[in-house]
Automatic annotation (TrEMBL):
Name of the protein in its database record: tRNA-2-methylthio-N(6)-dimethylallyladenosine synthase
S-adenosyl-L-methionine is among the record's keywords: yes
Cellular component aspect of the GO annotation: cytosol
Keyword Transcription: no
Cross-referenced InterPro entries: Elp3/MiaA/NifB-like_rSAM (IPR006638), Methylthiotransferase (IPR005839), Methylthiotransferase_CS (IPR020612), Methylthiotransferase_N (IPR013848), Methylthiotransferase_N_sf (IPR038135), MiaB_methiolase (IPR006463), rSAM (IPR007197), rSAM_horseshoe (IPR023404)
Annotated ranges, domain MTTase N-terminal: 5-125
Length: 456
């Protein structure tokens, strides 16, 4: 038998890229590729890239520079190392990547991952191959089942249910790199969730660029995300559900009600607002006002009082004044976030905001970001500190750094470190929180009945 080929996949950016990398591994496994732990010695390296901000995209070119040296070394040793660029930089830059970095053999956009073997074959015989079309067929229909490369071993998994975005926020490349909103059919999602549950998955995070805009074909017409969640909540084995990322405009009544009705839906929601200023929200084409967002948060909290919120913020969007920025600070104070991501505005070629004449100077952006991050850090610390002394259910996910220690997640997505036997991996146990750090909680097993049941 021929020696197995080895592929090393490096993932940048969001959770959808993490999911996609797994699915590319599934596609390549069918072609006889095994996973390599490092690019050294691999026959193929796939860079699954992110284009959301300038820094993210630049990282890719420096990585290709390092791989070029490995490729030359491999060639002098009589071996072949092929380099493929996938993900959103691939989609946005296409053939320019090969022009700028001739070491690259293949460029493949996110909608063409099912065609990866054919693209690589074309590159082998005819030089660099570039594929960034949005093919008419659904890539998921042409992929082997999830877990073909490596059946899931940990108890948590991502599952893409929706891709693309029709919102066209003026700062964002996603509508161009991931295309129009498209939802996977209910039956295919249920099938994949069942397969993951059989592989030991207990917690599923449904993914989509606009996941709450989900409208997938169901047995009786199009289903909303709320309906999909309640279907998945009925699956044996799946004990926790999450979804990300949501847009405020798609936070429908039934989805808010799902937070009240579904115990398995975790009380944590990533709901980006980007800015607290109506003027900037309008310039961003967010299509909602500050008050609309605050009202949605109130309704969500009425439905699920212990709901923790997470968000994304951009500071220094073109035209943002001091007073606009203060509006953002006040919104953050009003909402109170458990966790959040914040960024300096980064002009992205091809997006409307990049052409603005009113760019905010870099030092102003830096100062605003520092102030916002201080506030968000304080809120995160306060949220975590509020857990001390409480007993919370924790899904134990993996071994900790110290022997005898496991790491898990609380319902609010906090990392929890706890001394516990490895037999408890994959179980949800009650943990008493003894200490709260800013990034993780430290807990102890109270030796209660839940623990004993899980051990038995
Ligand atoms: N500049 C800065 N941040 C951006 N994001 C998206 N595009 C940009 C940009 N051009 C942020 C938004 C989004 C998150 C994924 O990345 O906050 O919600
Ligand atoms: Fe980008 Fe806006 Fe779409 Fe989110 S909703 S992916 S920020 S365009």
């Amino acid at each position: 038998m021929a020696e197995a080929k080895k592929v090393f996949i490096k993932t940048y950016g969001c959770q959808m890229n993490v999911y996609d990398s797994g699915r590319m591994a599934d596609v390549l496994a069918r072609e006889g590729y095994e996973a390599a732990e490092a690019p050294e010695g691999a026959d193929l390296v796939v860079l699954n890239t992110c284009h959301i901000r300038e820094k993210a995209a630049e990282k890719v070119y420096s990585e290709i520079g390092r791989l070029r040296i490995l490729k030359e070394r491999a060639r002098s040793a009589g071996r072949d190392l092929r380099i493929a660029v996938a993900g959103c930089v691939a989609q946005a830059e296409g053939a320019e990547i090969v022009a700028r970095a001739p070491a690259v053999d293949a460029v493949v956009g996110p909608q063409s991952y099912h065609r990866l073997p054919a693209i690589l074959e074309r590159a082998r015989t005819g030089g660099p191959a570039v594929e960034t079309e949005f093919p008419p067929e659904d890539k998921f229909d042409h992929m082997p089942p999830v877990g073909t490369a490596a059946p899931k071993r940990g108890p948590t998994a991502f599952l893409t249910v929706q891709e693309g975005c029709d919102k066209f926020c003026t700062f964002c490349v996603v509508p161009y790199t991931r295309g129009a909103e498209a939802s996977r059919p209910v039956a295919r999602i249920v099938e994949e969730a069942e397969r993951l549950a059989a592989q030991g998955v207990r917690e599923l995070t449904l993914l989509g660029q606009n996941v709450n805009a989900y409208r997938g074909a169901g047995p009786d017409g199009a289903w909303s995300l709320a309906r999909l969640l309640s279907r998945l909540a009925a699956l044996p084995g799946i004990e926790r559900l999450r979804y990300t990322t949501s847009h405020p405009r798609d936070m429908g009544e039934d989805l808010i009600a799902a937070h009240r009705d579904l115990d398995r839906l975790m009380p944590y929601l990533h709901l980006p607002v980007q800015s607290g200023s109506d003027r900037i929200l309008k310039a961003m084409n967010r299509r909602h006002r500050r008050d609309d967002y605050l009202r949605i948060v109130d309704r969500l909290r009425a439905a699920r009082p212990d709901l923790a919120l997470s968000g994304d913020f951009i500071v220094g969007f073109p035209g943002e004044t001091d007073s606009d920025f203060e509006d953002t600070m006040r919104l953050v104070e009003t909402v109170g976030y458990a966790q959040a991501y914040s960024f300096k505005y980064s002009p992205r070629p091809g997006t409307p905001a990049a052409d603005s004449a009113a760019h905010v100077p870099e030092p102003v952006k830096a100062e605003r970001l520092a102030r916002l991050q201080d506030l968000l850090d304080c809120q995160q610390k306060a949220f975590n500190a509020g857990m001390a002394g409480r007993t919370v259910p924790v899904l134990l996910e993996k071994a900790g750094r110290r022997p005898g220690q496991l790491i898990g997640r609380s319902p609010w997505l906090q990392a929890v470190q706890v001394d516990a036997p490895p037999a408890l991996l994959g179980a949800i146990v009650d943990v008493r929180i003894v200490e709260a750090g800013s990034n993780s909680l430290f807990g102890a097993l109270p030796g209660n009945r839940a623990t004993m049941r899980a051990i038995a």
